[in-house]
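Sample A.
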Amino acid sequence: QVQLEESGGGVVQPGGSLRLSCEDSGRTDRTYTIGWFRQAPGKEREFVAVIGGTTYYADSVKGRFTISRDNAKNTVYLQMNSLKPEDTAVYYCAATLRGMGYRTTDFGSWGQGTQVTVSS
């Protein structure tokens, strides 16, 4: 059973970078589609990026964020560059076997989240 653990969050100044990691500690031998979502205070959880047979990004992060995976480490990464204050949120990774998706309802397994704060 997939068990997702996010790490890499923190506080960064505008224009800075962070790399988030999402590790499947369940060490499943199945290749899941992994999505990154984020939720800011008082807002709904929103799609950020997804990796399966291909990659797909929200317009708000396209060109700044890059999603990638290392199958040998059972880990998916989200490299975040040129961060803006509006990127501040709790970031979650999620897994599905149902192919590419971008809605929260497309994903059945979620991590606990990691806080990203962009502030000067």
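Sample B.
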Amino acid sequence: QVHLAESGGGLVQAGGSLKLSCAASEYPFRIYAMGWSRQAPGKEREFVATIYLKDGVTGYADSVKGRFTISKDNSKNTVYLQMSSLKPEDTAVYYCSADTEESGGAYRSSWGQGTQVSVSS
């Protein structure tokens, strides 16, 4: 699977901003999309944002629309999540993902180790 290295998490006050980065390792198959999900204590992991690497099409969860922006740098195999107007309910471990199309038409999702984002009120 793709090795994903996340960075940029931390503690911020409500209303503040953070920018997460996720760098993907070289991989023999095409990475067609990358994204972010998050998991708060006691809750299930939920989708946050995704971006298609070929055309830059993006998608967001309703809870973050207008506040978070996902972007990419194809030359670095890296995606970013700019988070603004952060709320205490954004507190979670944020996980990066990479979706690949592999041999025989199989699809695989790889996940990073996660980075903690904590928002104080």
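B remarks: The first strand starts at residue 4 and ends at 7. The chain has no helices and eleven strands.
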